[in-house]
């Protein structure tokens, strides 16, 4: 039970971090530095690109069309949305299957539901990890490319939050999957105990009477003596 509670805390915390990464502004950041102060800061996420001047005024522009976006941005959007949805369903499965709750049926059914929750959280963590890594790969490849002459960006805070949440989701999911081993082994021990308790061993002893601690054999009578007929003169 304590392992499941710890796994639920880790995986749910990771899901919250992944969900907060999706609307975060600073996926990639760049700045133009003047002699004394920063003249402008450029930042972008999965939905828009913005610039902020030294006075704090921001000017943002949403991406105009879904079909006109770069392929990596579309892939990151799909992976992050899938990660949020999987984490949501994983939280519901975990609440139903945990031993500290009163729903879910028998222990075996709850163990199966917990395992499903663990797999769902692992898939959620892998999806968000893939999205953040793909976005970061694009930033680093453009930054270190000497032939790329456009605005170069650096890794933003949202990527590090997404990586942290992905790791927590994967760890919590693995703990959920490993927690079912104790449930199945306990159920197997109970079945073995019940089976052994129903089997009784009765020792077989030879026929006879016990007298003063010694076994006296019972005399065997033949069927001929039992079937012998006596006439009336033999009783006199």
Automatic annotation (TrEMBL):
Gene3D superfamilies reported for this sequence: 1.20.140.150
Keywords: Cell junction, Cell membrane, Membrane, Signal, Tight junction, Transmembrane, Transmembrane helix
Record's keyword annotation contains Signal: yes
PANTHER family, sorted: CLAUDIN
Membrane topology, as annotated: Multi-pass membrane protein
Protein name in the entry: Claudin
Any one Gene Ontology cellular component term annotated for this protein: bicellular tight junction
Annotated transmembrane regions: 78-101, 113-136, 156-181
A Pfam family of this chain: PMP22_Claudin
Organism from which the protein derives: Neogobius melanostomus (round goby)
Compartment list: Cell junction, Tight junction; Cell membrane
Domain of life, per lineage: Eukaryota
Similarity field: Belongs to the claudin family.
Signal peptide: 1-20
Protein role: Claudins function as major constituents of the tight junction complexes that regulate the permeability of epithelia.
GO molecular function: structural molecule activity
PROSITE patterns: CLAUDIN (PS01346)
Region (Disordered): 210-236
The keyword Ubl conjugation belongs to this UniProt entry's keyword annotation: no
């Amino acid at each position: 039970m304590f392992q499941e509670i710890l796994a639920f805390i880790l995986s749910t915390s990771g899901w919250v971090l992944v969900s907060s990464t999706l609307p975060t502004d600073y996926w990639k950041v760049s700045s133009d530095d003047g002699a004394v102060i920063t003249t402008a800061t450029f930042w972008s996420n999965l939905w828009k690109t913005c610039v902020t001047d030294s006075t704090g005024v921001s000017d943002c522009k949403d991406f105009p069309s879904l079909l006109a976006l770069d392929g990596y941005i579309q892939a990151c959007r799909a992976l992050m949305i899938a990660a949020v949805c999987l984490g949501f369903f994983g939280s519901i499965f975990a609440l139903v299957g945990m031993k500290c709750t009163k729903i879910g049926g028998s222990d075996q059914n709850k163990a199966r539901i917990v395992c499903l929750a663990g797999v769902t959280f692992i898939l959620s963590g892998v999806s968000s990890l893939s999205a953040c890594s793909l976005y970061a790969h694009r930033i680093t490849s453009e930054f270190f490319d000497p032939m790329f002459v456009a605005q170069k960006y650096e890794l933003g805070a949202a990527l590090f939050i997404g990586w942290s949440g992905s790791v927590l989701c994967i760890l919590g999911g693995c703990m959920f999957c490993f927690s079912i081993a104790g449930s199945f082994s306990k159920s197997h021990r109970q079945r073995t105990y019940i089976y052994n308790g129903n089997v009784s061993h009765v020792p077989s002893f030879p026929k006879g009477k016990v007298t003063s601690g010694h076994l006296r054999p019972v005399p065997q009578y033949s069927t001929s003596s039992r079937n012998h007929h006596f006439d009336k003169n033999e009783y006199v």
